[in-house]
């Protein structure tokens, strides 16, 4: 989690790291390496002491009530209302993850979905010179190439 209520686009200074049970049990060096990289990037890394298994293995095996209890515990350990306002909420589907997690924990499966992305404003801003170049390209050069190719083909078939 990054700092709550920071300005949009601001770089976080603090993160919380979820060390999964698989990393903790089988690849602890990976966890230490992630902390080292984040600290090298200038971030303050917090690894909450109360974290346990996230519940993914239980969920995958069909023990959904156990998985739900584990997920609720992780939310208690990691988050509060600041999780929904942090600077990375809009990054790569984090909002969907958060809203779907809440819907799943509330046992309201009808609310679980992947929401459509807002279209980005993708205007092409051209200088006056670039506009003139595009006009010449579209009205003269491209048609001219096809005319020359047609004349060449006609000439070769004569």
Strands of the widest sheet, in order across it, are: 1-2
Number of E strands:
2
Helix content: 40-55%
How far apart are the termini?
74 Å
How confident overall, as mean pLDDT? 79
Number of folding domains? Answer: 2
Structural category is: mainly alpha
The biggest beta sheet, please? Answer: 2 strands, parallel
Share of β-strand residues: under 5%
Number of helices: 6
Shape: elongated
Give the topology string: H per helix, E per strand.
EHHEHHHH
Q: What value does the Rg take, in angstroms?
A: 27 Å
Unreliable stretches covering 5 or more consecutive residues: none
Task: Walk me through this protein's architecture.
- It contains six helices and two strands; from the N terminus they run βααβαααα.
- The protein is mainly alpha-helical and 158 residues long.
- It has a two-stranded parallel sheet with strand order 1-2.
- The model has no long low-confidence stretch (mean pLDDT 79).
Outline of this structure?
The protein is mainly α and 158 residues long. It has helices at residues 21-26, 28-40, 56-60, 64-78, 94-105, 128-157; strands at 14-16, 44-46.
Write the layout of secondary structure elements.
Elements: E1 14-16, H1 21-26, H2 28-40, E2 44-46, H3 56-60, H4 64-78, H5 94-105, H6 128-157
Parallel strand pairs: 1-2
Kindly list the characteristics that best describe this protein.
158 residues; mainly alpha; 2 domains; two-stranded parallel sheet; 4% strand; elongated
């Amino acid at each position: 989690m990054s700092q709550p209520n920071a300005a949009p686009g601001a770089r976080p200074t603090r993160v919380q790291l979820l060390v999964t049970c698989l990393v903790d049990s089988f690849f602890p060096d990976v966890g230490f390496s992630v902390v080292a990289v984040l600290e090298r990037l200038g971030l303050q890394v917090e690894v909450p002491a109360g974290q346990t298994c996230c519940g993914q293995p239980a969920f995958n095996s069909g023990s959904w009530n156990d998985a739900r209890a584990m997920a609720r515990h992780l939310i208690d350990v990691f988050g509060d209302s600041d999780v929904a306002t942090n600077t990375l909420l809009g990054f790569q589907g984090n909002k969907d993850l958060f809203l779907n997690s809440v819907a799943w924990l509330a046992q309201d499966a009808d609310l679980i979905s992947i929401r459509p992305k807002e279209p980005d404003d993708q205007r092409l801003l051209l200088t006056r010179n670039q506009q003139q170049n595009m006009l010449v390209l579209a009205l003269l050069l491209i048609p001219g190439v096809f005319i020359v190719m047609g004349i060449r083909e006609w000439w070769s078939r004569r």
